[in-house]
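We store sequence, tokenised fold; for instance:
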Amino acid sequence: MKKTHYAFLSAIIIAAITSATAFAQKAPAGKIWAPAKANAWYAQHKWMSGSDFIPSTAINQLEMWQADTFDAATIDRELGYAEGLGFNTMRVFLHSLAWKQDKPGFKKRMDQYLAIASKHHIQTMFVFFDDCWNADAKIGKQPAPKTGVHNSGWLQDPGNRIKDAGIFPELEAYVKDVLTTFKHDKRILLWDLFNEPGNSGKREASMPLLVKVFAWAREVNPDQPISAGLWDWSYEKLNAYQALNSDVITYHDYSDENSHLKTIQLLKSHGKPLICTEYMARTRGSKFANVMPMLKKQNVGALNWGFVMGKTNTIYAWDNPIPDGSEPKEWFHDIFRKDGTPYRQEEVDLIKKLNGK
């Protein structure tokens, strides 16, 4: 996802952590996992490694989930690549408009996805809301990728619909329907309630939805933990609420291994397991070779952004388009070409080694 800020600001992280108690009273009582429960849950799993996943044939969440473009064959093939690496966890974005369009069909496709992932020995981390990229999602045929532009078709959720009358009851129905349907499903590792709240210039305007989605999830009380990842250390109020109300701490960090380690050392002060749900941007110094071994040593879950090069165009950097669409010498994200050929064999070899393959 695009980062508006990635200089490491340890003083601000400390301020966010120490001010977090100011928001604790907003959390529904008795439901947030205590550190002991969170750590016991984490200990039951192998070290979590994997990727954020969308099939190469989809430009965004709607193209992935709508009936006309749900591509089970590609999902199966590409999750096979993941299994080959020893990946055991994939993070997958949902979209409320796909649910609104066809509620039974949407949940049926979620179940189909989970069956494919489970066949490949992969658990799934589903994401509900997102403040990144395009704000005007529309049901139906999705646009073609813009040549050489990173994530040109990715969609916020709810995006501009947050201004619509009655949107909160609709979003509540969506979250509760999906959570209730899958609340006991062991194929699901964790529910990521909100990706990068405050992004796209929203900042604290995203707080009302963030608070509501945590409350909705607590009312359903799924077996799986819930979380919302920290990502911009200057967003003190959002960070405090996310950290205090998450069962396990998830976060994003696209910096090099030394800066990333400082993030981990500070976030460990919460006493809960850590899962990095986005890292690996080669031209920013976040690479498999330097970051992934550090994450394993720290026992922090490691999910990189980007898997198979495709319609999301994430081989291109966030703010550095290539107008002629030529392949960048250094891919920004992604591991494989569509045919399963690795971008860099030495990276694949390292990932397999770290995963015991």
Q: What stands out?
A: The radius of gyration is 19 Å. The first strand starts at residue 49 and ends at 52.
